[in-house]
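The material for today's practical consists of a large collection of protein records. A record pairs a protein's sequence with a compact description of its fold. Instead of coordinates, the fold is spelled out as a row of discrete tokens. We will come back to this pairing of sequence and fold again and again. Here is such a record, shown just as it appears in the course material.
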Amino acid sequence: MIPAGLDSVLGDGDVVLVTGSTSGIGRELARNLAETGATVLVHGRDAERARETVAALSGEGHEFFLADFTDLDDVRGLAERVLDGHDRLDCLVNNAGTWQGERRLVDVPGSDEGVEFTFAVNHLATFLLTHLLADRLEATGEKREASSDEGEADADDGPDPARIVTISSGLHRRATLDLDAVRGPAGPTGVDAYALSKLANVLFTAELARRLPEHVTANCCHPGTSPATALARDGSLLPGLGWRLLGVVGKLTGFTDSPAEAAETPTYLATSPDVAGMSGEYFEDREAVPPGDGALDRDAQRELWRVSSEWTGIEESRSLPVA
């Protein structure tokens, strides 16, 4: 549920898309955002889980959308269906993610070698989806400002923009951007590949915030350590066992978070009026904190943006403008 004492800028008539929301943290996020009165668009790969998630949400009008984030055409199809079905999008929560134990590759437009699976799902799909929905988010941010100006919303602190929230991880601190490492059959796997993809999330958020119009903000966060999620379901045997053991020990010691606890910070970023004027920040425990040094490299932010545009087939004319 929404953390006690938190107000919400989302409400009836607002629309939120939460990717990867049929289990774990994403499902808790969907529940929290449905409690605000907003319409929640649930995304996943499994139709049965998606139906169950929608049925469990409070309120009415929620929908589910199926898309496989290893297929960029599926990501484009998801964006198209969302745009066709809804004339507004108040918040996009980029939560979908994976952790792979073995090296797997995904075909992408700009790389003959293929791109590492974890990086493709955790970053490239997020990059592409955000681009395809950016215009609708901007238009909705303008509507929110107009509603505030007309007194249709509580505007004590000024108009509230549309929001983009991306789930990263504290593990980004152990990575340095190396785009050669995510190409081809040789390269990092497991936690190292995951950390690199999560660094990409933070770098992307910083560059995105500079390029977005004033009516949209972008922030990212570490949600917490929650082995109860299905994040590592495709990991190899020993790391998978270690992840589950961490869950057992962590639950007993209080070291780890439940999915509901891990959903608190991204819920805060999606709903709280306290962050209405903040963009390009990295959060832990509902506080903006400095990210790892590797995430502060402006050249790395620009290079990731350029290469991601190539690998997702984003045309220069459709890319958000350079700050």
